Amino acid sequence: MDEAENERMHLLTFIEIAKPTRFERWLIILAQGVFYNLFFLLYLISPRTAHRVVGYFEEEAVVSYTEFLAEVEAGNHENVPAPRRAIDYWHLPPDARLSDVIVAVRADEAGHRDVNHGFADHLSEQ
Ligand SMILES: [Fe+2]
Questions:
Q1: Distance from Cα 115 to the centre of ligand 1, integer Å
Q2: What is the predicted pLDDT for the residue at 1?
Q3: Which of these ranges, 54-58, 101-105, 120-124, has the smallest mean pLDDT?
Q4: Which phi and psi (to 5°) does residue 39 adopt?
Q5: Which of 22, 74, 80, 109 has a CA that sits 20 to 30 A from residue 11's CA?
Q6: Which CATH number do you get for residue 35?
Q7: What is the SS3 assignment for 72?
Q8: What is the DSSP secondary-structure string of 33-61?
Q9: Residue 125: which pLDDT band, with cuts at 50, 70 and 90?
Q10: Ligand 1 center–CA 13 separation, angstroms
Q11: Under a CB-based contact definition with an 8 Å cutoff, are residues 94 and 84 in contact?
């Protein structure tokens, strides 16, 4: 599992679905810039803590996607057709919808959660 590639596909897929405004895109870029630098510093200081923090973020991501899926299934969000890039990347059926994408992305996040907690546990033992 290539976590960086996973996250890049998550971002590109939801940009295609949500179609953020130019202002929202700049907010995303700004937030990424701030987070990257703070995380880099944290990783230099304590790789164990950095992996633990990511593990918790990924846990919250799983919870958020579960709530998002429930909203889509309840009809509060349109269950739009899945973008081509998502169908190709996650090998979804041709008639896949947003709900199928959410399930695939959530599975990725659960994997990221376990890998990062695993790294933090391993670094705790050293
Ligand atoms: Fe993730």
A1: 10
A2: 63
A3: 120-124
A4: -65, -40
A5: 74
A6: 1.20.1260.140
A7: helix
A8: HHHHHHHHHHHHH-HHHHHHHHHHHHHHH
A9: confident
A10: 14
A11: no
**Distance from Cα 10 to the centre of ligand 1, integer Å:** 8
d(C-alpha 60, C-alpha 66), whole Å: 10
- State the distance from the centre of ligand 1 to the C-alpha of 20, rounded, in angstroms: 20
Q: What are phi and psi of 74, to 5 degrees?
A: -80, -5
| Residue ranges making up the domain that contains 108 | 3-125
CA 107 / ligand 1 centre spacing (Å): 9
In total, how many domains does the chain have? 1
Give tens-digit pLDDT for 36-87.
999 999 999 999 999 999 999 999 999 999 999 999 999 999 999 999 999 9
How many angstroms is it from 108 CA to the middle of ligand 1?
A: 6
For ligand 1, the distance from its centroid to the CA atom of residue 119, given in whole angstroms, is 14
DSSP type of residue 21? -
